[in-house]
Design goal:
Blueprint (H helix, E strand, L loop, with lengths): L1 H23 L9 H18 L2 H19 L11 H23 L11 H16 L3 H16 L1 E8 L7 E3 L5 E3 L2 E3 L1 H4 L6 E7 L2 E10 L8 H19 L9
Parallel strand pairs: 2-5
Antiparallel strand pairs: 1-6, 2-3, 3-4, 5-6
Amino acid sequence: MRIRLRDAVAAAAALFAPFAVALALVPVRADVSHTNVALVLVVVVVAVSALGNRYAGALAALSAAAWFDFFHTVPYETLHIEQRSDVETALLLLVVGLAVSQLAARARLLGGVAVADAGHLARLHETARFARFSTSPDDVAAHVRQELVELLGLRACRFERGSLLGHPARLEQDGSVTVPDWVWDLDRQGWPEGEIELRATSGGHYEGRFMMTPVPGAPVPPLEARLVAVTLAAQAAVPLDAPAPVGSGG
């Protein structure tokens, strides 16, 4: 019963919290950029996801995108958008909101602040924009590789496409690290030696992997940073999974 009650509360919050926040920001919409409004609404999505489940998070993401459109794009108080930049921001709000809602629902210990750090949100937002408009999947992979180096404090990182070779340690979707035959205790043991694999998948399809080399003896980044890294890798996989343009060679 407790779980059903919590999920019911989360569903109600998913519907009303984005509305309340978007409405509260109306008096300052002339002074606050649309990107910052979108980031605030993503924080609301994360909070709802941490309270409830992934379905509540997805509903919150849809609600946030709709109320952002209604209150903060011209013409106001309609679901019509005139400016292309506003369309892009609304779509990115929805995509990033859905992504971080799944992360927060997967690990509720993030609470309402896990991915709410402005730096993490900005990193996800900018990478989603880069992936959406880049014409080269390799450029997207290179962009994500650099983001991973900065986010996780890595000594080096490279991207591999193609089949899997070897059995390196792996950064999993839940932010944990596994090595062959057991789960690695990051808090007690730190990063394992050698390269660590982070797979890039899209729609369940493996597209490649980032091979990350931590700085020896460096502290392990917090869970929220590792979960953001997982999302960045998934963003890199999307253009790699896209069908080749008609008329391309092959």
